[in-house]
Amino acid sequence: MKRLALLLLAASLALAGCYTNPVTGRKSLVLLSQGEELTLGAQSFQQIREKEKVSADPASNARVTRIGQRIAKAVGNELPDAKWEFVVFDSNQLNAFALPGGKVGVYTGLIKLAENDSELAIVMGHEIGHVIARHGAERMSEAMVISGVGALGAAAVEAKTGDAATRQTFELAYGGLTTIGRVLPHSRGNESEADRMGAIYAARAGYDPRASITFWQKMMAQKQAAGGAASEGKLGALLSTHPADTTRIADLKALMPSVLPTYEQNKGKFND
Ligand SMILES: [Zn+2]
Question: Is the pLDDT confidence value at 3 over 80?
Answer without folding.
Answer: no
